[in-house]
Write a structure and sequence with these properties.
The protein is an all-alpha fold and 84 residues long. It is 56% helix and 0% strand. The chain contains four helices and no strands.
Length: 84
């Protein structure tokens, strides 16, 4: 049985990772924030983020799903779908 989280818990954990590990200003982290344009992540950061989220969910985000992710809400939606 996988872990279950609310959308708010997923968003909060994602925010914590972005602030703690990528030194992003918490004020910039909104559902609409683009990971690459607004938060200035690069492709290596995106892979690091995916790995950290795997530890959080105990599940692997498929590369196909990960390629579709552009903003914070996309990440939350992908994790929510993963842990159903």
């Amino acid at each position: 049985m996988g872990k279950k989280f609310t959308r708010e818990e997923i968003f909060n954990k994602l925010s914590d990772i972005l602030v703690d590990d990528f030194e992003i200003d918490k004020a910039l982290i909104t559902p609409e924030a683009n990971l690459f344009e607004d938060l200035d992540l690069d492709s290596i950061d995106a892979v690091d983020l995916a790995v950290k989220l795997q530890y959080f969910t105990d599940k692997k985000i498929s590369p196909e799903n990960f390629k579709q992710i552009r903003n914070i809400e996309d990440v939350v939606n992908a994790i929510e779908e993963l842990i159903k």
